[in-house]
Amino acid sequence: MHLHESVVIGAGQAGLSASYHLLRLGVGHVLLDANDAAGGAWRHRWDSLTMDDVHGIADLPGSPAPQRDGRRANDVLPGWFEAYEREHGLPVVRPVVVDDVTSDGDLLVVRAGDRRWTTRTLVNATGTWTRPFVPHYPGIERFRGEQLHTVDYPGPEHFRGRRVVVVGGGASAVQLLGEIAPVADTVWVTRRPPVWRTGDFDPEAGRAAVALVEERVRRGLPPASVVSVTGLALREQERAAEHLGAYDRRPMFERVEPDGVRWADGSYEPADVILWATGFRPAVAHLGALRLRSSHGGIRLDGTTAVADPRVQLVGYGPSASTIGANRAGRAAAVTVARQLRAEAA
């Protein structure tokens, strides 16, 4: 049995950052990735998402982010990740879909099918993309039209000439409405009135947003997204949709009917498609056996360290689920792992 000093699960931005810093600190580890090639969740984004559209791609340690332009993000960013892995010799093993992580005395055992990795510490960087969230509303199963989540978004042409109800109050909903409204009839529905950002989203605002989400995970609450506390803003590419009234939001409907949605006041909107831009949940089911969740439903963190099991670091969770916090969290996790290993050896 080979004993690793650390295992990193997930090769998105947070996982790459953690692996880079572990290497620099001399920590022997392996980086397990579920995808069959580099790129993390960016590999699966829709073709119409360009580098001009993506929100705040941060630099990787020692490598500036690609420039903003009209190239497809699902080509450019995976290519950047692939070059980064190669340039820095990151110890990636793929594809590896981790089934679970269990405790074996002082060690942790990572299992994927019939393969095992035994380790002293773990850095979990599995993000959220593989856990799209669709809320349940009465009648949702009887809808005769098409239902899609953001994760399955096929591009605006798919909706041409159709009646589309877009559900969700985040940046993805705003962006997708910007693409769909010029070619289809749209209705925007959110649980709460959207909060529009009036100032620029500068680094100071980004740090403040991360701090708000950090406070939630410090208390063991389920994490909110960083975007949920930054507010929304329209870009030039969404102005056409604005002029069409796409951002005249309606409150959340009460139920879904076979051919549309109905509100509590009896008003009705016919629909061919319901597009659920309702976000994601952390992909941490494989950590269930470690019993990391608090009584509040979230995983309580001290920095990046799971309070319930300090052998485990979480990056790409809560405040580091966006690129704003991912790199900082990767470095913090690596430093903590190195410190723990030194303490064990002393």
From TrEMBL:
<dbReference type="GO" id="GO:0050660">
    <property type="term" value="F:flavin adenine dinucleotide binding"/>
</dbReference>
<keyword id="KW-0560">Oxidoreductase</keyword>
<dbReference type="GO" id="GO:0004497">
    <property type="term" value="F:monooxygenase activity"/>
</dbReference>
<feature type="domain" description="FAD/NAD(P)-binding">
    <location>
        <begin position="6"/>
        <end position="316"/>
    </location>
</feature>
<dbReference type="InterPro" id="IPR036188">
    <property type="entry name" value="FAD/NAD-bd_sf"/>
</dbReference>
<protein>
    <submittedName>
        <fullName>NAD(P)/FAD-dependent oxidoreductase</fullName>
    </submittedName>
</protein>
<dbReference type="Pfam" id="PF07992">
    <property type="entry name" value="Pyr_redox_2"/>
</dbReference>
<dbReference type="InterPro" id="IPR050982">
    <property type="entry name" value="Auxin_biosynth/cation_transpt"/>
</dbReference>
<dbReference type="InterPro" id="IPR023753">
    <property type="entry name" value="FAD/NAD-binding_dom"/>
</dbReference>
